[in-house]
Write a structure and sequence with these properties.
10 helices, mainly alpha, two-stranded antiparallel sheet
Amino acid sequence: MNNEFYLYEIIEDYQNASSPEEQNAIFHSFCDALWENGSDRTLCTRAVRFRVRKDLLHTGPGQVFDRWSNLEYTGYHAKSPQTDWCSLIRQKINNLYTRYFDRQVVLDKEYLALLNTPKRLYFRWTAGDNADPEETSAAIQGALAQAEALKVRCQQQKMQLSWTDYQRLIEEILLRTMRNCRPQIANEPSAYSPMYDFMDEDHLYIRYFCRCLEGELLKWQKQYYGLNDHKKYRRCQDCQCLFELRSYNQKRCSRCQTLHNRKNRTQKQRLYRQAKAASL
């Protein structure tokens, strides 16, 4: 199977197949086209960069800003240059893996804002704000320390799954999506909006598959953490896993709360012994 076939044609062939064996053959060809597609998941090095003006490099603040004028971080290519159904769905699959599983990539908005601190302070300084070298250096180092702590926390929030196991999971989701997809979806009254008249039938199926992939992965995330549906949950402040919220002020999962209580008891016992020894 290749991109000469439209996605809606593949779905129609699957739905109209004369036997389960024929359906399986169509589905496996569909998956092979996705995995063999050239839109591989690609990481890249990005940076928050700025250039200190030459006439300011000799100053104390200028030297401070120049030290942190190039802060690198790991990013990824989130968009496909191709617009065929295979490339777009594969790109969605890549992006979901990066978002939920790849600990090398942290693109949290607060994290990036903290990395942007030297650049932001530099342009404030050139706009007229005072910048004491020691205070500026301390502010930047503090922001970067916060960024590193936040990076670790964001990494802990990601689940662990190899790319091979992820492919198996995606194929399970795609199979359910293929089975539940209705070929007449493009003919439904709400399928098209006047502002999207340029979209063909394949775009609607692409959007449908991408939405199903994301929704099913969120459901799988609950299973990964052992959560029940229709329950409120929160991130543990220690291990960053998701846990079911049993009380409003609960901050830790049961495992981390047990460890926290044990640590507190040990600390209280040590303080009690020290106080008792000092009173003798």
